[in-house]
Design a protein that fits this description.
Elements (H helix, E strand, L loop, with lengths): L1 H27 L5 H22 L2 H14 L3 H29 L1 H7 L4 H5 L1 H22 L5 H23 L5 H25 L14 H35 L2 H14 L3 H21 L2 H36 L9 H20 L3 H6 L5 H25 L1 H27 L5 H18 L8 H23 L5 H23 L2
Helix pairs in contact: 1-8, 1-12, 2-7, 2-10, 2-11, 3-4, 3-7, 3-10, 3-12, 4-7, 7-9, 8-9, 10-11, 10-16, 10-17, 11-14, 12-13, 13-14, 13-18, 13-19, 14-17, 16-17, 18-19
């Protein structure tokens, strides 16, 4: 678990910093022009939704087949091999998407009253999708080498600095709307090149691809895995992006902007889970190749506990500071009230908690010999999310999108949990989960009584301080899974030994 702990901790620290920048942007910048912000997220979400089709599942195959190339002694060939395969996929998939789009164009126009928004931006969306395809390829190449911090710093955190600046430039009329779009495209092209050179720097690579590394049966397995991985990614994107896309196509860009302002702050809860999932992916993939099921069980158990502890705390923290966040925003919030923010966040946050406490079940299934079943679960998730969004958006507006996401994620994770248990024998310890949730409910009740009359910023600092003190104290006493105390003590010991070394090396 050493590499998982180190990379996860670094990833979490970097992302909390990026999220703080994102928080400031949400409060002071994005609310200046929610329509333009919603427009960007609409384009970004649609382009991201194209990735599984554009890449035919190549990204999941990178994590799956990196250990295989390593065992064959052909690691130097893996990067150029996957790059060539991605380019072939991009050409074929672009033709496929173009044909499919024009065949079903009348149907799309009938189903979505605001479908014209997609049609007007189809070339921009496709261009961004192809750029994202290569950027994601380079990110997954780095992940397969157990590097998640720098790629995320480049690909994700960088956007948190770039987008606010660009919206400010538009707000003060330094650039036009077209200039905004062209700058966005150029930015993502630059990011793709930076990621490319980073991956190149990680090791030696053969320039000329060798196509005979895999035999006929292995190629058959590769393309089969890519097919199912593509469907898996498509279903996953339905869960992550369908609410935004449907709000844009059924309501308005401004509604997307309002929803995404809430979503951006809610996504603080994704940081620890994202770190754990990214770094455990290649580890679990190698464990399956090496038949080390005990380590998979260990990762599954600990990911649920640590993720749950942090996830519940982050949910409580965001919930108690939401009223102060709203008060900090410009007065012309255009419908973004405290009640709306809390309603949407509650369902989104609970969905994230469910996903976190059920552990790394997706990685376990995706890199096992039964990876096809993950597609079936994601198919259920995609259909549920699409249907529930269509139903609840009509009745409850943006709150309905959050309700749909919550219900979809509950059913999806329950199905995966039972499959991992009955198929592989891996199981979670329910008692620590109950202890964590029980602690969360108790602390939530206490924090509901805290009403501070100071400036919103001071209120947030005091509330987070009170919350952290109460929550950490109870968690320390309960010690869910007999893991928390030992892990904290180990981190403190590592810190004590690490700091003197840094001081002696750089300061003495």
């Amino acid at each position: 678990m050493g590499v998982i702990q180190r990379q996860s901790l670094k990833f979490t620290i970097i992302n909390f910093f990026g999220t703080f920048i994102g928080f400031l942007s949400v409060v002071f910048i994005y609310s200046l022009n929610k329509e333009l912000y919603g427009y960007f997220q609409f384009l970004y979400s649609n382009a991201s939704l194209l990735l599984p089709i554009l890449g035919f599942g190549i990204h999941g195959a990178i994590i799956k087949y990196a250990p295989i190339f390593e065992n064959k002694g052909e690691s130097k060939q893996f990067f150029v091999f996957s790059l060539a395969l991605t380019t072939i996929c991009a050409i074929l998939s672009t033709l496929f998407i173009s044909i499919l789009y024009y065949l079903f164009y009348p149907l799309f126009g009938t189903l979505f009253k605001n479908f014209q928004a997609i049609d007007d931006n189809k070339f921009i969306i496709l261009t961004l999708g192809i750029i994202f395809l290569y950027s994601t390829l380079f990110v997954f190449q780095a992940i397969s080498r157990y590097r998640i911090v720098i790629p995320d710093l480049i690909n994700t955190v960088g956007l948190k600095f770039f987008l606010p600046i660009l919206i400010l430039l538009f707000h003060f009329e330094f650039i036009s709307r077209n200039g905004f779009i062209y700058t966005v495209i150029i930015y993502f092209i630059i990011i793709a090149f930076v990621l490319f050179f980073y991956v190149v720097s990680l090791g030696k690579h053969d320039i000329k691809p060798k196509l005979d590394i895999l035999n006929k049966e292995e190629y058959k397995g590769l393309f089969g895995f890519m097919y199912y991985s593509s469907l898996n990614s498509l279903g996953s994107n339905f869960a992550l992006r369908m609410d935004v896309i449907m709000i844009g196509s059924m309501i308005s860009y401004e509604a997307v902007g309002i929803y995404f302002i809430i979503l951006v702050i809610s996504n603080v809860m994704d940081i620890p889970a994202k770190a754990i999932n990214q770094i455990t992916g290649p580890v679990i993939s190698k464990n399956w190749v090496d038949d080390d099921q005990q380590n998979i069980q260990d990762i599954y158990f600990k990911s649920s506990i640590y993720g749950g502890i942090i996830g519940v705390f982050l949910f409580l923290m965001i919930y108690v500071i939401w009223p102060d966040v709203i008060l900090l925003m410009p007065k012309d919030k255009d419908g973004l009230s405290i009640e709306l923010a809390l309603s949407v966040f509650t369902f989104l946050g609970l969905a994230k908690i469910v996903d976190i406490i059920t552990g790394v079940n997706t990685n376990i299934i995706s890199y096992s010999k039964d990876y096809k079943f993950n597609m079936y679960f994601l198919l259920v998730l995609g259909v549920l999310n699409l249907g529930l969004n269509y139903l609840f958006l009509t009745k409850y507006g943006v709150v309905g999108a959050a309700i749909a996401t919550f219900l979809s994620m509950v059913i999806y994770n329950v199905l995966k949990h039972f499959f991992v248990f009955y198929r592989f024998g891996f199981q979670l310890n329910i008692l620590p989960i109950i202890q964590i949730i029980g602690t969360g409910i108790l602390v939530f009740t206490v924090m509901a009584l805290v009403d501070l009359p100071f400036h919103p910023i001071l209120n947030m600092v005091l509330k987070v301080g009170i919350l952290a003190t109460i929550y950490s104290s109870i968690i320390w006493m309960v010690n869910p899974g007999h893991e928390f105390r030992g892990q904290v003590i180990q981190i403190v010991k590592n810190y004590k030994s690490f700091l003197p070394n840094i001081v002696s090396k750089y300061l003495l």
